[in-house]
Design goal:
10 helices; Phosphorylase Kinase, domain 1; alpha+beta; six-stranded antiparallel β-sheet; about 325 residues; Transferase(Phosphotransferase), domain 1
């Protein structure tokens, strides 16, 4: 086959929803990706393990099913597109990479993202319990790197929680943190019509900054509050505040003082780490660290993360997450 014939064949492949007559021909397609198996499910769509039909590289494809939102479909589609733009705009090794967006032949919108192999922090906490302080500091520093990149672009995540922080294998490294799901992102550079409902509050109550709960203006410091809540949960195995209803939990973030994490666990928590977590949990944004970069630098200054070395991480992964058992992408389900 000559060069011209090869170019024509590739052109037909990407124009045609059917692709070549090979093993992937019988599989559902999302653009140039054959959908292999579902690896996550949500109310409005699914996440699939997929393979590029030409390059044979694997990726995660997030589908948004048409007609599954009722009156909220327009808002959900807008949120899906906003998530794609935000994720693509952020340049950080600690934010999940977006490769492509499009629409299937059946009218389903989709994102193509890197396929992560590992475990999200909520699953980690549920399966293995609280983490040692050195590892928590190590993970917080990485999350700060990712958030700093987002905040430099004027993007506030607004839903930082353990389920949206993923621990992955990255080449020969392990315990590499990736931030997922920018579906509730707020772009502080532009005044835009809200994509949450009249009676909705963006975020998850257990990890919600006071200004988010009250509907006040937010900036990157709302994400730092949420990250403080995550660190609190990772150290103690418990949320900062508990309540019977989501409204009670959100209200507690507004009016109640958090108990120091050292009072919620028998484990020894270093004072400097506890002080940084409580600073993140300050009610007023002005009383929190000024930026994600500042928080990262303060964490590094404690020297705690040096107590969780690559050797420690590798030993933990080899014991608890063997390569053959960790090949899953546990992203938050499509909204």
């Amino acid at each position: 086959m000559g060069l011209r014939d090869s170019i024509d064949a590739l052109s037909r492949l990407f124009r045609s929803p059917d692709g070549p007559a090979d093993a992937s021909d019988a599989l559902r397609r999302a653009g140039a990706y054959a959908l292999l198996e579902p690896i996550g499910q949500g109310t409005n769509g699914d996440v699939w393990r997929a393979r590029h039909v030409v390059l044979e590289s694997e990726a995660a494809v997030k589908l948004l099913r048409p007609g599954s939102f009722g009156r909220d479909e327009t808002r959900a589609v807008a949120r899906f597109r906003r998530e794609a733009r935000a994720t693509a705009a952020i340049e950080s090794p600690h934010v999940v990479r977006l490769f492509d967006v499009g629409m299937t032949a059946d009218g389903e919108l989709f994102h193509v993202m890197e396929l992560l192999r590992g475990i999200d922090l909520q699953s980690l906490l549920d399966r293995f319990g609280p983490l040692p302080p050195a590892r928590v500091a190590h993970l917080m520093e990485q999350a700060c790197d990712g958030l700093a990149a987002a905040h430099r672009r004027g993007l506030v995540h607004r839903d930082i929680k353990p389920a949206n922080l993923f621990l992955a294998r990255r080449g020969g490294e392990v315990d590499w943190l990736k931030i997922l799901d920018f579906g509730l992102v707020k772009d502080t550079n532009h005044a835009v019509v809200t994509l949450t409902g009249v009676d909705e509050v963006a975020g998850t109550p257990a990890f919600m900054a006071p200004e988010v709960a009250t509907g006040d203006a937010v900036d990157g410091r709302a994400d730092l509050y949420a990250l403080g809540c995550v660190a609190y949960a990772l150290l103690t195995g418990a949320p900062v505040f508990e309540g019977v209803t989501a409204m009670q939990v959100a209200a507690a973030h507004v009016v109640e003082a958090p108990a120091p994490p050292s009072t919620r666990t028998r484990a020894l928590i270093p004072r400097d780490l506890e002080a940084l977590i409580l600073a993140c949990l300050a009610k007023a944004p002005a009383d929190r660290p000024a930026s994600a970069a500042d928080l990262r630098d303060a964490l590094r200054a404690t020297g705690l993360s040096s107590g969780w070395t690559a050797k420690h991480a590798r030993a933990w992964w080899d014991t608890h997450l063997a390569p053959e058992s960790s090949g899953v992408f546990e992203a938050a389900p499509p909204r």
